[in-house]
């Protein structure tokens, strides 16, 4: 991946912003802005860059977490989930012709729903693997965590419906990403 220094710098800014926002909201269970930050990075910088931002942001957030680092299977699931969030941001950006009206906002809301549901699924599966997998333990984990999943999914869906399109629109209108050739922005 041969990237211009400005793009690398913006990736670093997104990583720092994602980790910082994670720590800023760390005491509010299942309300976070890390996923949205990573998604926006993929949307504005591209698929590969979004994946890298997602992987590094979540890895740093977990490694530096004052509550302690996640167990290895959970750590891997968290990091992979956030790589997927960056990937989905980049993929959705490719559909530039569809960036208007209610359909656009619903796509973003669905992306928030999906990225959070994927995170919940992968992290729960990793936890069950950690405690010796069985279908009963898996079902029990999903039932026990249902309230947490609902709060996380609903808040991220709202964030992706309201905050994400606002930030994307402002970033594009203010020219923060002016140096990117058109073909890079639409990839």
Describe the protein:
There is one protein chain. This protein has 187 residues and is an all-alpha fold. It has one domain: Arp2/3 complex 21 kDa subunit ARPC3. It is built from 7 helices and no strands. The chain is globular and about 50 Å long. The C terminus is likely disordered.
Contiguous uncertain segments of 5+ residues = 181-187
Structural class based on helices, strands and sheet pairing: mainly alpha
Tell me which CATH architecture applies here: Orthogonal Bundle
- Using the alpha-carbon principal axes, give the shape: globular
CATH hierarchy class name: Mainly Alpha
Please identify the oligomeric state.
single chain
Note the total helix count: 7
What is the rounded Rg?
17 Å
Relevant terms:
0% strand; 7 helices; mainly alpha; 187 residues; Arp2/3 complex 21 kDa subunit ARPC3; globular
Task: Give a nutshell description of this structure.
This protein is mainly alpha-helical. It is built from 7 helices and no strands.
Topology:
Layout lengths: L4 H20 L9 H12 L1 H17 L8 H22 L7 H30 L4 H40 L7 H4 L2
Helix pairs in contact: 1-2, 1-3, 2-3, 2-4, 2-6, 3-4, 4-5, 5-6
């Amino acid at each position: 991946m041969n990237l211009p220094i400005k793009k690398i710098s913006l990736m670093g800014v997104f990583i720092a912003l994602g980790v910082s926002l994670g720590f800023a909201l760390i005491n509010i269970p299942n309300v976070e802005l890390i996923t949205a930050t990573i998604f926006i990075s993929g949307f504005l910088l591209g698929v590969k860059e979004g994946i890298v931002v997602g992987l590094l942001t979540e890895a740093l957030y977990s490694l530096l977490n004052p509550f302690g680092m996640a167990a290895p299977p959970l750590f891997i699931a968290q990091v992979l989930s956030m790589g997927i969030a960056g990937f989905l941001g980049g993929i959705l950006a490719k559909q530039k012709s569809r960036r208007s009206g209610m359909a656009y906002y619903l796509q973003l809301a669905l992306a928030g729903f999906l990225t959070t549901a994927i995170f919940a699924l992968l992290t729960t599966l990793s936890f069950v693997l950690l405690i010796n997998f069985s279908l009963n333990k898996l079902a029990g984990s999903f039932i026990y965590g249902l309230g947490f999943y609902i709060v996380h999914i609903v808040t991220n869906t709202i964030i992706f419906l309201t905050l994400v399109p606002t930030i994307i629109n402002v970033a594009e209108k203010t020219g923060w990403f002016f140096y990117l050739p058109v073909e890079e922005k639409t990839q």
